[in-house]
Amino acid sequence: MNTWTLWFTKPPSGKGDNWNELLKEVISFDSVEEFWGIYNNITPTSELALKSDYHLFKKGVRPEWEDSQNKHGGKWAFQFKDKKSINIDALWLHVMLAAIGENLEDEDDNEVMGVVVNVRRGFYRIGLWTRTVGKALPGDQGKGRTFEQGKETLTKIGKRFKQALQLKESESVEFSGHTDAAHAGSTRAKAKFVV
């Protein structure tokens, strides 16, 4: 099991807050027992203030596009637009357990960086951040991958993420690169992949 770090983004005060001032590292853990101790003592997602976020990332990876381990990556995401009709606490727990249980990717994929839940006025959004956008990677002794293999890996992760979110077959999760989102000036860039 990897060591994971829980982060919290508090809502902006409206006084030109810097993102780094709003983002707080809460605690790191490396066992399921520690996870439950933390989970049972934090505010449930459903009770967080608007514009709050929880981030659960591998230790050493900051939940921001600029982090060296994220800057060439992207994210799978889904927006739950009817906040009253879903149990966001159960869904977020399910996604966190899938991440720490390493059920979202195969052992050698090394793609999943973390998961995030955003609390917004009209919706909840859950995302899964990846190390790459599925590009070809050089490597020695068969450790590299082609673009098609990269796309296949990300698509497989997207399907597992969709399962963790307990979505209907008719619902889709979308993948976009962090660079694309930065250029679009939004966290909602045009999707590269959809499953």
From TrEMBL:
Highest taxon of the lineage: Eukaryota
Any one GO molecular function term: translation initiation factor activity
PANTHER family reported in the protein's UniProt record: EUKARYOTIC TRANSLATION INITIATION FACTOR 4E RELATED, EUKARYOTIC TRANSLATION INITIATION FACTOR 4E1-RELATED
Protein name as catalogued: Eukaryotic translation initiation factor 4E
Record-stated family: Belongs to the eukaryotic initiation factor 4E family.
Quaternary structure and interacting proteins, as annotated: eIF4F is a multi-subunit complex, the composition of which varies with external and internal environmental conditions. It is composed of at least eIF4A, eIF4E and eIF4G. eIF4E is also known to interact with other partners.
Keyword Protein biosynthesis among record annotations: yes
GO biological-process terms attached to the record: regulation of translation
Annotated GO CC locations: eukaryotic translation initiation factor 4F complex
Organism field: Corynespora cassiicola Philippines
InterPro entries for this protein: TIF_eIF4e-like, TIF_eIF_4E, TIF_eIF_4E_CS
Keywords from the named record: Initiation factor, Protein biosynthesis, RNA-binding, Translation regulation
Function: Recognizes and binds the 7-methylguanosine-containing mRNA cap during an early step in the initiation of protein synthesis and facilitates ribosome binding by inducing the unwinding of the mRNAs secondary structures.
Protein's UniProt keywords contain RNA-binding: yes
